[in-house]
Amino acid sequence: MLTILYVSDQKTSKEFYEKVLNMAPVLDVPGMTEFKLGGDCSLGLMPEKGIKKLLGDALPDPAGAKGVPRAELYLTFNDPAAYHKRALDAGAKELSPLQSRDWGDDVAYALDPDGHVLAFARKTKPHTP
Predict the structure, then answer these.
(1) 3-state secondary structure of 20
(2) What are 12-46's pLDDT values in tens digits?
(3) 77 conformational bin, left if phi > 0, alpha if psi -120 to 50, beta if neither
(4) List of domains in the chain
(5) CB neighbours of 19 closer than 8 A, spacing ≥ 6?
(6) What is the percent of the chain where pLDDT is above 90?
(7) Greatest distance between any 2 Cα atoms in the chain
(8) For the residues of 52-94, what is the DSSP string, one character each?
(9) CA 34/CA 45 separation, integer angstroms
(10) Which residues contact 101 (CB under 8 A, 6 or more apart)?
(11) Mean pLDDT across the chain, nearest whole number?
(12) I need a surface site. Which of 13, 110, 124, 125 has the fewest CB within 10 A?
């Protein structure tokens, strides 16, 4: 699975996610940067101009939503506090520190430079339907 975030500046976002994820991208070419998150999950960063060029008027211009949360990336780690701290150190805006949530995870929330919500989580008990 590849999740793609539309970003205003590919280089800035690449550098941000390199710091947060503590890894280099597996792909970094004009128009797309990808990070392998684990298993068959990857995170892609595509410039807003690129998706606008690709889909034209079939999609509202994502640049018009600057600062409006457009996606939440919910990432689970053994040490979510370390990832949350790296995000803040890299320039993310804190929304909520790490705390236990009523669905059974410990989660911290931040905004990346494009306003995407980042959730850094640790499963603390199994989810029940």
Answers:
(1) helix
(2) 999 999 999 999 999 999 999 999 999 999 999 99
(3) beta
(4) 2-123 (3.10.180.10)
(5) 86, 87, 89, 90
(6) 73
(7) 45
(8) HHHHGGGS--GGGGTTS---EEEEE-S-HHHHHHHHHHTTPEE
(9) 6
(10) 107
(11) 91
(12) 125
- Length of the chain in terms of residues written: 129
Structure tokens at 91: 């320039």
Determine the Cα–Cα distance for residues 29 and 47; give it in Å rounded to an integer: 11
- The pTM assigned to this predicted structure is 0.86
CA–CA distance, 36 with 20 (Å, rounded to integer): 13
| H or E segment and range at residue 14 | helix 10-21
